[in-house]
């Protein structure tokens, strides 16, 4: 069974895109409630909030991207950005690690968590 792990930046980007669509759908639904003012206003507001939130998420990705490390994927030889100690390639989802001690180990998203790290040390 192939591990479906996504690159973090791609994952957040997908989330932000989903929010924009959700916002547009909510506003579109609001148009069907022209007769019921409170329902229309509520849906429109939710739609606007979703779109504003997605803008914030996009801004956050921009911030994260500056901290991301650009590496060349050993598997597809394309350049990819990674966050944290372990991440996946943006193009082929090859698991990548920044930590030599984790090389060759089973891929585990928990390596990014500080809590899990402490548990291992004990
Ligand atoms: Zn790759």
In short:
This is UPF0295 protein GH754_14780. It comes from Salinibacillus xinjiangensis. With about 120 residues, the protein is mostly helical.
Characterize the main sheet.
2 strands, antiparallel
Q: Provide the spatial order of strands within the biggest beta sheet.
A: 1-2
Sheet/helix structural class: mainly alpha
Amino-to-carboxy terminus distance: 32 Å
Reading the helices and strands in chain order gives HHEEEEH
Protein name: UPF0295 protein GH754_14780
Main location: membrane
Organism: Salinibacillus xinjiangensis
Keywords: Cell membrane, Membrane, Transmembrane, Transmembrane helix
How would you explain this protein's 3D organization?
Helix 1 (8-31) packs antiparallel against helix 2. The protein is mostly helical. The chain has a two-stranded antiparallel ribbon. A two-stranded antiparallel sheet has the order 3-4. The chain has helices spanning 8-31, 37-67, 114-121; strands spanning 69-72, 79-82, 86-88, 95-97. The model has no long low-confidence stretch (mean pLDDT 89). The protein folds into 2 domains: 8-67; 70-121, no CATH class. The chain binds zinc ion. Zinc ion binds next to loops.
């Amino acid at each position: 069974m192939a591990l479906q792990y996504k690159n973090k930046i791609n994952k957040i980007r997908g989330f932000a895109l989903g929010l924009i669509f959700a916002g547009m759908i909510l506003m579109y639904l609001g148009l069907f409630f022209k007769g019921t003012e409170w329902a229309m206003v509520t849906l429109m507001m939710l739609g606007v909030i979703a779109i504003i939130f997605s803008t914030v998420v996009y801004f956050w990705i921009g911030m994260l991207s500056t901290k991301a490390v650009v590496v060349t994927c050993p598997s597809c030889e394309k350049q990819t950005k990674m966050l944290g100690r372990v991440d996946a390639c943006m193009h082929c989802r090859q698991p990548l690690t920044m930590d030599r001690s984790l090389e060759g180990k089973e891929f585990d998203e928990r390596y990014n968590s500080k809590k899990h790290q402490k548990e291992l040390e004990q």
